[in-house]
Amino acid sequence: MSLPELIQYFRNGGTYDGFCKLHRIDSDEDVTEIYMQKPYGLNNKLEFFKVDETAGKKQYSYNGSDFYYLFDFYYFLSAVKEADRPQSASITDIDLALRLLDNAEKDF
Fold first, then answer.
1. Cα distance between residue 83 and residue 25, in whole Å
2. Could you give the C-alpha distances from 42 to 3, 6, 51, 92, 95, in angstroms and in order?
3. Closest listed residue to residue 2, CA positions, set 50, 60, 41, 54
4. Rounded CA separation 19/16 (Å)
5. Residue 54: pLDDT above 80?
6. Number of structural domains, the chain?
7. Which of 40, 43, 6, 42 is nearest to 23 (CA)?
8. Which domain holds residue 68?
9. Fewer CB near the terminus (10 Å): N or C of the chain?
10. C-alpha–C-alpha distance, residues 8 and 69, integer Å
11. What pTM does this model have?
12. How confident is the model at residue 101 (pLDDT cuts 50, 70, 90)?
């Protein structure tokens, strides 16, 4: 799943619990973090890890590949909610994805 696809899922009424069920994530555990391989890009596949798996590392190796922290799910959901406010209605899924990736790169 790419970042625009994740955004679209939630902007079209998807829920965190529903997402967790689809991806076999226990929604009752610690916050899920969102990671991506570099260089960051709109079509790059996202990976989702629990905080206790990554120990808060900015770089996390999984299945022989290095993934880099983007943000946690609470931040992501907050950004989607903000983009869905009437005064932000013109923000497209791609615009939001680009903003989120830009912020993640600045924070890294």
1. 25
2. 6, 11, 24, 13, 10
3. 41
4. 5
5. yes
6. 1
7. 6
8. 3-107
9. C
10. 21
11. 0.89
12. very high
Residues 6+ apart with CB under 8 A from 18: none
Res 35 pLDDT > 90: yes
d(CA 17, CA 78): 15
Per-residue HEC secondary structure of 30-55 comes to CCEEEEECCCCCCCCCEEEEEHHHHC
CA distances 87 to 8, 46, 74, 84, 108, Å, are 19, 29, 21, 8, 29
Reported residue count of the chain is 108
Q: How far is 102 from 108, CA to CA, in rounded Å?
A: 10
Task: Please give the Cα distance from 41 to 31 (Å, whole number).
Answer: 23
Tell me the C-alpha distance between 40 and 98, whole Å.
10
| Dist CA 23 CA 86 (whole Å) | 30
